[in-house]
Amino acid sequence: MTEGRIPVERRRRKPTKSGVLLSADLIVDCALRLVGQHGPDALSVRRLGAALGCDPSAVYRYFHNTDDLLLAVADRIIGESMAGFTRSDDWVADLRTMARRIHRAYSEHPRIAAMAAYRVTRRINEVKAVETGIGLLRSAGFDAATAVRYYAAFVDTALGHAALDASHLALPPERRAQDHSAWTDTYQALPADTYPQLDAVRAHLPLMAESSFETALGLLLSALAAQAPR
Q1: Among the four residues 102, 157, 163, 173, which has the most C-beta atoms within 10 Å?
Q2: What average pLDDT does the segment 34-50 reach?
Q3: For the domain with range 84-227, which CATH number is right: 1.10.357.10, 3.40.190.290, 3.40.1440.60, 3.30.1330.10?
Q4: Residue 121 half-sphere exposure, CB side, CA atoms within 13 Å?
């Protein structure tokens, strides 16, 4: 599906000044590295050209613009998350595995997650993932429309938590520490007569600093299993 987005004749046929033979995969590799090291502002043809040792305009031989490249990067992460995935005879367990793979892949690229987890890549890895997820729900007996709606809820839960947790990971360490200490300091000091509900759960409030991904995933899968026709 990625093939043909840029005509083959427009692709570079000779090495760059640094001796590197450009390819779409090489540019995606570079984009992942630059954004991981320097943040979203690093996703520019100027920075890519400097890192690859080529004229920045050469990037346009492979991608229409930086948004097109961002979608390719997002699709790469989806591909990484699903690499080696195989279906079993337990559709609930397979959906849990899919969600955890997605969450882990974006956690490994937190700065990309904040930029791209909510995008539709329209590329082959995403298409394969959607095919797999909807197929799992249909194997549980859901009709076509229900399978699509429930898959949307499932993948949005996985991607939403992936983006949220990845955005937290992308914060400077001191800001992460401040957010975490709010539940052990600020909330612990609130007066009980003003906030009786918070006082009743005071000892457990530090749990708010943890990711709720597994809890949300468990609730969603339990609801799906309870409604499954089979």
Answers
A1: 102
A2: 93
A3: 1.10.357.10
A4: 24
Instruction: Dump strand ranges (E) for 48-152.
Output: none
Non-local CB neighbours of 92 within 8 Å, separated by 6+ positions: 140, 221, 224, 225
The continuous run of DSSP H or E covering 49 comes out as helix 45-52
CA distance linking residue 152 with residue 156, whole number of Å? 6
Q: Return d(Cα 74, Cα 79) in angstroms, integer.
A: 9
Give pLDDT tens digits for 139-189.
999 999 999 999 999 999 999 999 999 989 888 999 999 999 999 999 999
> 8-64 has which CATH code?
1.10.10.60
